[in-house]
Design goal:
By secondary structure, the chain is α/β, with parallel strands linked by helices. It has one domain: P-loop containing nucleotide triphosphate hydrolases (Rossmann fold, 3-Layer(aba) Sandwich), CATH 3.40.50. Helix content is 36%, strand content 26%. It has 11 helices and 10 strands. Strands 6-7-8-3-9-10 form a 6-stranded mixed β-sheet, with helices on both faces. Strands 2-1-4-5 form a 4-stranded antiparallel β-sheet, covered by helices on one side. Helix 3 packs parallel to helix 6.
């Protein structure tokens, strides 16, 4: 479904992503973990067209989308839930959700309002409330719901647990498992490496802008190198 080959992205003279490669198969939930500053968010933003690569390629369903604009990538069905949620505060919950349909561009939707409300019942209760007045967890649910309304063929999430209370994190990840079991393909960047590995099929470890390790999540969870070098530093970072 998605193939990154030697992808590189720079901010001026600073190279954030250096020769990163990964692949995602249909129906998988893939986790991307690594310490802060490893280039994970920059990699997602390059995939979704928010940043332009300086080298390498991005292929989505065997189509080269390298360098496409963000709106073109979204309309192809590759939708990102950004770090920090970025909901439209002055609009209501339902207005935010309906705006997500702009990404359909004629494609058949795979989620309707009723589906989003079934996944996140609190959004149904708050459907007339201004998005800016929601709690952080509710805004995260809204951001995921808005992406679902755009008919994702591949859903990308950037740090969905960031700043959320543990009980809300559990609710969000339960929803992601529901989506995964429904057949939706997901690529996840997550600061809580233990949770990410427990939730995914396969995982990649990113360090200094490169993908340095890859394997089944269950194996990586018990790999002494991961436990020693990655899990403690990732999970204790504020």
């Amino acid at each position: 479904m998605l193939i990154l080959d030697g992808l590189a992205t720079s901010y001026g003279r600073i190279q954030a992503v250096r020769h990163a490669s990964l692949h995602v198969e249909p129906g998988e939930l893939i986790a991307l973990i690594g310490p802060n500053g490893a280039g994970k968010s920059s990699l997602l933003n390059t995939i979704s067209g928010l940043l332009k690569p300086v080298a390498g390629s991005v292929r989505f369903f065997d189509q080269d989308i390298t360098g496409w604009r963000a709106d073109q990538v979204a309309r192809a069905g590759l939708l990102q839930v950004p770090e920090g949620r970025q909901v439209l505060g002055p609009l209501t919950v339902e207005e935010n959700l309906l705006l997500g349909r702009q990404a359909l561009a004629g494609r058949k939707p795979n989620h309707q309002l009723a589906d989003v409300y079934a996944l996140f019942p609190i959004l149904r209760e708050r459907h007339r409330q201004k998005a800016g007045t929601l709690s952080g967890g509710e805004q995260q649910m809204l951001a995921i719901g808005r992406a679902l309304m755009g008919g994702p063929r591949l859903l990308i999430l950037d740090e969905p647990s960031l700043g959320l209370a543990p009980i809300i994190v559990n609710q969000v990840f339960e929803a992601l498992q529901t989506l995964r079991h429904s057949g939706l393909t997901i690529l996840l960047v997550e600061q809580n490496a233990s949770l990410a590995l427990a939730s995914s099929n396969r995982a990649y470890v990113m360090e200094h802008g490169r993908t340095v390790l890859e394997g089944p999540s269950e194996s990586l969870r018990h790999d002494p190198r991961i436990i020693r070098h990655y899990l403690p530093s990732i999970e204790t970072t504020p």
